[in-house]
Give the backbone structure.
Amino acid sequence: MGTPAFAVPALDILISDKQDICAVVTAPDKKKGRGLNLSYSDVKEYSLRHNLKIFQPENLKDPEFIKSMQDLKPELIIVVAFRILPEEVYTIPSEGSVNLHASLLPKFRGAAPINHALINGEKETGVTTFFLKKKVDTGNIILQKKIVIEDQDDAGTLHDKLSQAGAECVLETVRMIESGKVTTQMQTESEASAAPKIFKEDCLIKWNQDALRIHNFIRGLSPYPAAYSYLNGKSVKIFKSSLTDIMKSVTAGTVIVKEKRLYVSCADYLLEILDLQAEGKKRISASEFINGLDKNKNLFFSETGNG
């Protein structure tokens, strides 16, 4: 069970290992674009190419869907980046239901573990497989694989690394269950932390914070949903930044252009901005962005769009 691109490597590795996939469950098709054409999930597109049986329930508690799942008599359900399963579904398989989560549980439970690991300045993260139980992301841990977070990583690059590590973790987990050698470990509640879903209002940059915190915030939201601020009353998304050792000497949020480089004053140091996107424009480098700035005007990034 899965929907986005993150789940595809796990499905692919199971197919490559000749595991018997009796069906794939993914999200319903969505209408997308001006023509409102139907758009398939990444998992559905992969499944169609491999002639897999596909279910796309609107409601996971639909009796017809549950009956269809029961009729398949699955030994195991693997969940990767999908919705919260009701107990009526995750208790169907004889060997239980396993979820892949993109963190080292119990750290960063929730919908956005990759983003929150970076935002919090973590140096290490990983993936975890665990048996589902009623409370989300709290089941007994089966297997974990660690990943070093590199200084240049953002949410996009870390997503791809964890997707591949997750696929390997899923296959190893399945083989452990097949062999009857699986052992589990309870999560330590005192070590738990939350990684809730991120909304647009959560992505607004607060320039009166330390440069390191803002830098981690930017890379933790890049490329999507993207940290943003306001310049001249218009929204500007910021995708990439670089720390400097230049002490601040002006108000936080002040834009400084020097030798074709773009800096913003934070609470302690200047932060160099490398890639950004003005409202209604495409993503460009800072040097390209500078070309369109009014050199005779003092510029400030702010938290409101009031100009």
